[in-house]
Amino acid sequence: MPIDLRAFEEEAHASGFRRVAGVDEAGRGPLAGPVVAAAVILPPGFVHPGIDDSKRLRPSRRESLYGRIYEAAEAIGIGIVDAREIDRVNILQAALAAMAMAVENLDPPADRLLVDGPFPLPLSIPQRPIPGGDGLCLSIAAASIIAKVTRDRLMAVYDTQFPGWDFARHKGYPTAEHRAAIRRQGCSPIHRRSFRGVREALAEREQDGHGGCPPRAR
After folding, report:
1. Domains of the chain
2. Per the confidence metrics, is the pTM higher than 0.90?
3. pLDDT band at 210 (very low <50, low <70, confident <90, very high)
């Protein structure tokens, strides 16, 4: 039986909530770049057969749906937490902070949240964490698309600012080519220095006398 992606929103609307936001993030796994979150309020009754978990969609399809979601949504909020903060607090706390930021950037604000994953956000708004929500809930799936496309576009910009790591291609994820680039030339200002795969490669370079990371601007 097909999953009813509107079920969680319809339940919230039936309980009297008006603006129900799906919330998701992109970029927990990469070795470089920010974690980006999105919160999306879709109008009641909105359906689109193409919206799904962003990981199941081809890049061209995500780009097309990105525009469709922006056209239809009542509100969209974006939250971004950079690599420096990820290193400071850890990736889970950074992802939750980015999602909370996305919710706070909604205009009009949400009165109910549907959050991807098992953890609630540090907000007083009524909310429901939904593990695997990006494949079960329409507004969370929409948020996953917005977050993923936004982050991919940011990584393309970083590629022009920090050439040599091919960020536009792998988006900071730990591909063999990306790991080789870190071993070859160290890290950029947007690398996550606390992450396995960056940390070890930098230690090896320092032992060999090649240096690791340039200091980050304050």
Report:
1. 7-159 (3.30.420.10), 163-207 (no CATH)
2. yes
3. low
